[in-house]
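User: Run a structure prediction on this.
Assistant: Running it now.
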Amino acid sequence: MKELLSRQFWTAPASCHLEYRKAQPPFPMHSHDFFEIVVVFSGKGIHSDQKDESLIKAGDLLCVHPGQFHSFLKTEALELMNIMIKPDFFYELNDEITNCQAFTEFFSLSSRNKSTSVRKLHLNKMQLIAIKDIINSLQNEFAQDLPMVQVQINCLLLQLIIYILRVKDNPDFPSVHKKSSANLLIQYMDKNFMRNISMQDLMEIGAMSESSVLRAFKHLTGYAPFVYQNRLRMLYATTALSSSETDITTIAYQCGFNDSNYFSRSFKKFVGMTPSEYRLRFAKKISTEHT
């Protein structure tokens, strides 16, 4: 069985490396000398380790420890992101993080983890959007030659780890009441972000006042309603630009923009580059390799 080494993918001083797979093919049993967080965006397949085989699908997040063996089988349009992290990053985390139960269960560096099953979480739609948002920020940092880029990458990586730990500790994070009117509003926005939605629409759907709608979105997502909607649109656009050959005007309409020029301006404000620049930098051919 093959061991994949960090030096095959990236060089110092970066503590992590991202590998996007538009369509992950089956890949035989192998291990790494690094941590690998796998986030499934769409499609499905079978993930196997030395203990178990399980179906993986959109929203699943796997954590493969150094030395653990795993493989991908029977993949069907399995779109995912591999986030490869050097173990040294975890050794440098403070005690507040490493001493919490969620960290021990999910990221513990104990040697016994090599013989246990790969850790797995399932993210709900809101959580997957939040994870994609952090990944998008990481991609932007790698793409730009800015001062203190490694510091910012480490900050974003820490943000990702903490978010995963919070979901591990509370699968409903950041939601508190699953069936509340507030959650119904978020679900509605998640499914209809490409539509023209008004504040009046949200007030009627949630049977809430405008101030209550604003508080609900801020509490559950961290954003005002239409800022959240725009982020959904932009995250959809980043995925479409990097994983399809659909023309930019069509993607703009799919996101809910009637004016492709306005879409391009909004995209650049959100991502830091134009849609064409983003596609040129991040679009990849379907790879036949796995990280």
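Confidence is low (pLDDT under 50) at residues 285-291.
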